[in-house]
Amino acid sequence: MSELKLQQCRLDGRYDVRECLGRGSYAEVYVADDVAASDGQPRTVVIKALNTHLQGVPDEDLERTLIENFRNEAMALDRVRHPNIISRLGHGTAIDLAGRTFHYLVVEYLPGGDMQALCRHQPLPLARAIDYIEQVAAGLQHAHEHGVIHRDVKPSNLLLTADHSTVKIADFGVAKIEAAEGAITRVGTDVYAAPEHHPLAHTGPLDPSALERKKQLTPAADVYSLAKTAYMLLTGEAPRRFSQKPISELPSPVSEEPWAAFVVRVLRRATQTNQSERYQTVREFHDELRDALLPHTRLLTPPNGQTRNSTNNTDGSSQPPPAGLKASGADGALPAAPAFELPLRPAATVPGVNASSLHPRIVVPVASPSPPQPSQPAMHVPEPHIVRQAEQLVPPLPHVPPGAYPSDGRNLSRGFQLSGRARRWLVALLLIALFAGMLLATHNYVRGLRNNATPAAPRTTTAATANVNPLEREYLARTDINLRSGPNRNSPKIGEVDRGARVRVLDVDGNWFLVEVLERQRPKLDPAEADQGWADRDYFRLK
Asked: CA nearest 513: which of 488, 491, 535?
């Protein structure tokens, strides 16, 4: 083990390293003060330093892969900037106190710790768990929409702000950019990784049907990991017993919650081994989980907890009480909240039930039956025995002036009818507005013709439209561009041109330029990457 010598030193003349927060397999994390931070920028930052010699001297292939993953993380963070994703503030290459060269990233400092420590040994309150899952789902959905799949979603990679109100996704070191391209590598954490990229997954029996399916990584991989993470937030324990298996149950006492069965159904689908059987988007998974956690309807019981299960008929037999009726206590106390149930049967048809002893029920005024008007559809009129039952159970209501509340659909619709004069005014206003719109459109059309008559301003010439010989000319990169060894997209990547960099064209092959980088806008992450290579000419413009 060979650790970097960075504590109590100033990195790149800007970052005063205070202490080491932790070490992984090939990275070290430090907290530092940014002495060059301007107003509005954070003063305390986190330095993530790549140490390829932390586990000993690596071979060249491993070291190249580690550097590529480090660059990949920087590119992913720049592509998916979001309030629920950790922000990259800078990067660079430096030398430690022992003279060792290393690469580093600067990210924002989140002092609230990670979700693993917050919910270890005990579940989070339901409202907080729902809020955190919603924030993580929003960040992942944004990343997926920008072509990035995280592949290592787990509680320890979800960091919190100081007040624990905001959660942000961190560690995009193994993220997959443009997931539809390239082979799937085995990465992730054993407990939370999806089977399609699980680091310990073994090859099973040959499935002939699998040969016909195009194997590729999809956002369903992050849906799987997010579901396993939601399990820990809701239960307080890691889903180790469901490693590489769908979640089939919740532990006690969480399994006794009224929402447990609904949540298990959602988590089971989200963690299916076959990715096509899962939710295909994070938004779909979150919506289903949120609905499963909503409060569900429960039977209303009196405060003393006793219910009347049956009533005795005149012949001595037992019969359930009428639908919606419950016996009151001796003190006649009302239930805690009203229940809305089916209409009651007539009291005369329920032997043994005294209507005067029942609790008052919540009802609405019932309109007296009247024949339907010829110009309106017939409305449903309550059965006469239901009206009589309501009159028996409810004390007289105070007088309501006519028109104060619409008693049915007929009165409500009648209140929005316009008089003949109002309709005429409305039609006149619409015609005036239409005529004014036509005048405005005509004015804009004539003004456009006049503008076209004047000489047009010269347009900025790009490499794709320039009618000049590009050889030996200087261009500017319109965005970050990959340099390749040959004039096609299948050629290996040998370098990178950052946005705004100045280049010279050495050769042309169809729509490809052989360019030489003259001036960069930011330093290279890898000093060994090439400064000359082929790139698509559409991404350059004349200087």
From this structure: 535
Give DSSP secondary structure letters for 423-449: HHHHHHHHHHHHHHHHHHHHHHHHHHH
User: CA–CA distance from 394 to each of 87, 300, 331, 357, 364 (Å)?
Assistant: 63, 19, 19, 12, 10
Residue identified by tokens 């998974």 is 285
Structural contact between residues 321 and 310, judged by C-beta atoms closer than 8 angstroms: yes
53: buried, middle or exposed (CB in 10 Å: 19+, 13-18, 0-12)? middle
Location of structure tokens 């006649």: 332
How does residue 302 score in pLDDT terms, banded at 50, 70 and 90? low
> Which of 173, 198, 169, 168 shows the shortest CA–CA distance to 271?
198
Give the distance between the most distant pair of CA atoms in the chain: 109
Number of alpha helices (DSSP H) and beta strands (DSSP E) in the chain = 9, 19
Name residue 176's beta-bridge partners. 149
Chain center to CA of 22: 29
Measure the CA angle with vertex 80, ends 87 and 238; round to 5°. Answer: 80
Please give the model's pTM, rounded to 2 decimal places: 0.53
Give the CA distances from residue 279 to residues 283, 285, 287, 338, in Å, rounded to whole numbers and listed in that order: 9, 6, 11, 38
Residues annotated as part of the active site: 152
236-281: pLDDT as tens digits: 999 999 988 999 999 988 999 999 999 999 999 999 999 999 999 9
pLDDT tens sequence across 320-340: 444 433 433 334 443 333 333
CB–CB of 106/15 below 8 Å?
A: yes
